[in-house]
TrEMBL record:
Signal peptide: 1-21
Name used for this protein in its record: Putative ABC-transporter substrate-binding protein
GO cellular component annotations of the record: ATP-binding cassette (ABC) transporter complex; periplasmic space
Annotated keywords: Signal
BP-aspect Gene Ontology terms: choline transport
InterPro entries linked to this entry: ABC_choline_sub-bd (IPR017783), ABC_Gly_betaine_transp_sub-bd (IPR007210)
Ranges of residues in domain ABC-type glycine betaine transport system substrate-binding: 24-275
A GO MF label: choline binding
Amino acid sequence: MTGKLIFTTTALALCAHQATANCDTVRMAEPGWTDLALTTGVASVVLEGLGYTTESYVLGIPVIYESMVGGDLDVFLGYWDPAMESYFQAYREAGDIETVHQNLEGAKFTFAVPKYVYDAGVTDFADLATHADKFGRQMYGIEPGSNDIMLGIVEADAFGLSGWKVVESSEQGMLAQVKRNARGEEWIVFLGWAPHPMNTSFDIEYLTGGDNHYGPNFGGATVHTQVRKGYLEECPNVGKLLTQMTFDVPMESAGMAYILDDGNDPKEAGARLLKEQPQYLEAWLDGVEAKDGGNGLDAVRAHLGE
């Protein structure tokens, strides 16, 4: 595996000498979410097939953005709009980070509950406080730094949820808790989203009422590719790939299951997905060259063993 995993700003700072890295190495990051781990893994496989070196870092969203501004990272494939607006607004206004492509539509991101909780009458954010004791006055999020909306709801006493605890752990930790609770039909409210295998692994429902916090249509979102300022001009061949690499919900859900259910690492899952669904490559690689100037599509196919 060529990619590296760096978890702290201190460790990332060790790479500061690469701040003016040339186009031979593409430095990406994702916040530890399986969907973004997958898409970063897929991009890594394609880029390495083209002859580039890739580095992949797992960092909190604020650290990702600061690292892009500082020139230590090149690419982020995971700007969820509008869920990440509060993180990105200042960088948009400053013009330090460029949003260059919408790589997914049809995503959603908001509170979810098991269907047995939904059927018992919890169908809206406003229903939670009425059943506070059954929930233990707890809601489950993911990694620290990724739950600001949930924390803000509690802090603002929206829906009468003041005093509730936001349990922060990780995506995997949250879903393990959902699984434990579901076994005994114990009540739980958690952060749910699509694409994700949770939508088929568990019988869940999304709550209405969160439009002012997560956006309409159950936090209906698009996901975008972002780069550090000037990157597309510096590295136009990689940039062409990035502006053509578009995913879809079924594809991502399938690849995420390879990670979560089969234990593949993101690049293994990405390679497996592309071998099983190679039809995406033609559009992604239209007009994209290999680093040595050869045909990009042929190079990636050869890398995948086709």
